[in-house]
Amino acid sequence: MISVVIPVYNAEKYLHRCIESILAQQFKDLELLLIDDGSSDDSGRICDEYATKDERVVVFHRKNSGASASRNFGIEHAKGHYVCFVDADDYVDADYISGMLAAVSNGDDADICLSGMKRDADGKISQMLCFERQVLQLSDLTSELFYRTILHRGPCCKLFRNEILNRQQIRFPEGISFGEDAVFYYQYLLCCKSIAYADNSSYYYVAHEGVSLSTRIHQPEQLVFHIKSRYELTQQLVEKNGLSIEFPEEFYVIKVNELKILLSAAFTYHRSISRCKKIMAEVIENTAFGVNTLHPKSLGNKVFLGLVKLDSSLAIAFLYAIWKSIKK
What we know:
There is one protein chain. The chain is α/β, with parallel strands linked by helices. It folds into two domains: 2-206, Alpha-Beta Complex (Spore Coat Polysaccharide Biosynthesis Protein SpsA, Chain A); 220-327, no CATH class. 45% of the residues lie in helices and 17% in strands. It has helices at residues 12-23, 43-53, 67-77, 96-105, 143-151, 162-167, 180-189, 220-240, 249-269, 273-284, 299-309, 313-327, and strands spanning 2-8, 30-37, 57-62, 82-85, 91-92, 112-114, 117-121, 124-129, 134-137, 158-161, 194-197, 203-206.
């Protein structure tokens, strides 16, 4: 049996499509755990409606605690051999689960399975990520496949072995609103030996206009946690599996952009130059982040990185002045 966990919070606009897509799966031996996280709209009633129609649907109504707590609650109640997660505003094709199980069966019960994903932007569908079907030991991953594996860091489009989740007590960090997915996923990978890749791209991520990492301002302390945790766990994955990884240029460009996002968040939440300087230093001085491996090509990024690495209040004050002029 497969346990499908869906955290639900005020998702009435999308919920019917999401639930219908799960119940229409070619693979029938599943349980659908709907975790109503204190919704104030009609989501709770919709969940209950499906529970009366299909005995595979199990509904839990809880006080609002966030997506991480809802997913953890789902893990605690999951009875399936594998657990997978779907977001309430997304949807899947009928071969979503069967495609991943077909890949897993080639690997004598692989520890985790990854599948591809498509993006639905107001009905416009585009491919986000896809794989060739194969099963490998993590220690055999190429640089290219390792990078694509860690880049695919959300909880969806994956099968997690329930036994590993509970034996290792792997759970989503609660109390933070950003980066918890990656921490959960990377901690799980650290407990894996084998990984299966499915060749279906049957998950549809629904993109909402104006919502992205670059447009949302997160608390800088949570961004620091996310950045440090991700690179520290990545380093552990490389070392544990004896890998020799050459990351693509994109990997280092992402790091520079993360520093920009972090500095903007620090300026937004803390107008104190000394406080902003301290926040940036937490990442700059982190060995796993590896700021000295960054060699940006554009002049703007070179100047930005040079100022940030100075560890100078004057440099941060200069960047703050530029930031303020851009925000006006």
